[in-house]
């Protein structure tokens, strides 16, 4: 049997050739294209089994435009997007448009081998039907921010699930951004023009929750002076976000289960009404435990748990803390005003904090610091952390001197060294602990001149092998 053919579309000759060498070394044939249009021509005229597509192509077609054109072919091969500039927006959009995966350069040989194996397995199992993806203007203000590996997985899940009507359950600690994920699912979906309605099930008294969700007719009970639609009918055609559903009263759980099954709501005192609503639910509770305790219906749990998106706490997403803080600084700036900047000492301080309140706590801390700061630069003293026992270890003299990028580089170097020591040189585990992907860790080890063997206290050979080579 002839080897599978992988098409590499990249406008940088060096990267094309590097990928080609690795693809052939892995036992596949390689076809190359220096532009999107050339790649599309080859796809129409040759038997291509999978595509590696650069996101930032030069010319009149960028990677996403090429992806849309590939997905519109009668029998499109699986496509993996490659980029050195991964963002939440382009990750979600690429997955939403049908990309098989979205990888960050430089790409490790082992990761590329795994990716090609999975793409070709998909190709062997099924021939994908044509997909016509509409070009939508997506609201970045509803995009979950972060480039840590846990957040990248969330962004990919949003891209996969956005256009589906499947019920989604978002789980995570308080303050991790569950409503933001629900809004992103709505904003990146075909339901975007329709309403997004959010209801906090824990904040509404149990005797009012039924009316809040299903509505009522005039005179149905004392005080019902007019008809009310309720959240389900208000969200008709759009998305209904049921926050803290784990705290919903048991009697209400049975009624929600019926609505999820039949898509019919019955207003208090009224007649059944058909609704077309996509449900996204969220909770900080551990629902299996509540099911075992008899506090949550097992059948409702299984009905909600069709697709689960877990959100990691901020303490497990160190790579996201500084980008989030900078985002909140931009939000806090008045119109026409330049956002305040952080010192390296403040960045180190933020990274040392446990953040039990997660992203919500970080935002409040930055907002408070902006108010307290006298100048254009924020420092640790501006945080107003009186009474909070979160003092970091005192760094060596001069460790935080210089500008923010220099100080953050020192901090990253020390954190990477410590992670490698803790993990005995296992870079995959070190990357997981640091909240970044493995390829980014390799890049930073090289950038900062770290010897992985020295840092881990073990021989270099213990952590470096043929599969750790990088491509791109």
From TrEMBL:
- PROSITE patterns for this protein: RESPONSE_REGULATORY, SIGMA54_INTERACT_1, SIGMA54_INTERACT_2, SIGMA54_INTERACT_3, SIGMA54_INTERACT_4
Domain Response regulatory, by residue range, is: 5-120
Residues that bear 4-aspartylphosphate:
54
Tell me a Gene Ontology molecular-function term this record carries.
Answer: sequence-specific DNA binding
GO BP terms in the entry: phosphorelay signal transduction system; regulation of DNA-templated transcription
One Pfam family this sequence matches = Response_reg
- Disulfide bond is among the record's keywords: no
SUPFAM superfamilies given in the database record: CheY-like, Homeodomain-like, P-loop containing nucleoside triphosphate hydrolases
Q: Which InterPro entries match?
A: AAA+_ATPase, AAA_lid_NorR, CheY-like_superfamily, Homeodomain-like_sf, HTH_Fis, P-loop_NTPase, Sig_transdc_resp-reg_receiver, Sigma_54_int
- Where is the Sigma-54 factor interaction domain positioned along the sequence? 144-371
Q: What Gene3D superfamilies does the database record attribute to this sequence?
A: 1.10.8.60, 3.40.50.2300, Homeodomain-like (1.10.10.60), P-loop containing nucleotide triphosphate hydrolases (3.40.50.300)
- Entry keyword set: Activator, ATP-binding, DNA-binding, Nucleotide-binding, Phosphoprotein, Transcription, Transcription regulation, Two-component regulatory system
Question: What name goes with this protein?
Answer: Two-component system, NtrC family, response regulator
């Amino acid at each position: 049997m002839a080897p599978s053919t992988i098409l590499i579309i990249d406008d940088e000759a060096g990267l094309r050739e590097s990928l080609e060498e690795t693809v052939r070394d892995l036992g596949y044939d390689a076809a190359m294209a220096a532009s999107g249009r050339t790649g599309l021509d080859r796809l129409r005229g040759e038997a291509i089994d999978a595509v590696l597509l650069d996101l930032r192509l030069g010319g009149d077609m960028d990677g996403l435009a090429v992806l849309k054109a590939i997905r519109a072919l009668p029998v499109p091969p699986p496509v993996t997007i490659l980029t050195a500039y991964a963002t939440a927006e382009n990750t979600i959009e690429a997955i939403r448009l049908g990309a098989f995966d979205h990888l960050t350069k430089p790409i490790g040989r082992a990761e590329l081998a795994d990716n090609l194996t999975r793409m070709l397995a998909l190709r062997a199992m099924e021939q994908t039907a044509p997909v016509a993806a509409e070009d939508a203007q997506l609201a970045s203000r509803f995009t979950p921010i972060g480039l840590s590996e846990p957040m990248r997985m969330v962004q990919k899940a949003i891209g996969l699930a956005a256009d589906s009507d499947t019920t989604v359950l978002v789980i995570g600690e308080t303050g991790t951004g569950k409503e933001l994920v629900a809004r992103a699912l709505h904003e990146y979906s075909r339901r975007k023009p329709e309403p997004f309605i959010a209801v906090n099930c824990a904040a509404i008294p149990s005797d009012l929750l039924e009316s809040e969700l299903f509505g009522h007719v005039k005179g149905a009970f004392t005080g019902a002076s007019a008809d009310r639609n309720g959240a389900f009918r208000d969200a008709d055609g759009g998305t209904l976000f049921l926050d803290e559903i784990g705290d919903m009263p048991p009697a209400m759980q049975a009624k929600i289960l019926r609505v999820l099954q039949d898509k019919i709501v019955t207003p208090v005192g009224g007649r059944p009404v058909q609704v077309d609503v996509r449900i996204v639910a969220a909770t900080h509770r551990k629902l299996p435990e509540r099911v075992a305790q008899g506090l949550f219906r097992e059948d409702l749990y299984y009905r909600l748990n069709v697709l689960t998106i877990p959100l990691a706490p901020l303490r497990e997403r160190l790579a996201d803390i500084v980008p989030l803080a900078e985002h909140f600084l931009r939000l806090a700036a008045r119109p026409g005003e330049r956002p305040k900047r952080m010192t390296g000492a403040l960045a180190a301080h933020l990274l040392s904090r446990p953040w039990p309140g997660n992203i919500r706590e970080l935002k409040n801390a930055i907002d408070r610091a902006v108010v307290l700061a006298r100048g254009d630069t924020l420092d640790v003293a501006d945080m107003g952390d009186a009474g909070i026992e979160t003092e970091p270890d005192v760094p060596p003299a001069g460790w935080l001197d210089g500008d923010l990028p220099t100080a953050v580089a020192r901090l990253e170097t020390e954190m990477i060294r410590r992670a490698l020591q803790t993990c005995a040189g296992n870079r995959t585990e070190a990357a997981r602990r640091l909240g970044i992907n493995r390829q980014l860790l390799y890049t930073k080890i090289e950038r900062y001149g770290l010897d992985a063997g020295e840092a881990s206290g073990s021989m270099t050979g213990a952590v470096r092998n043929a599969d750790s080579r990088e491509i791109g």
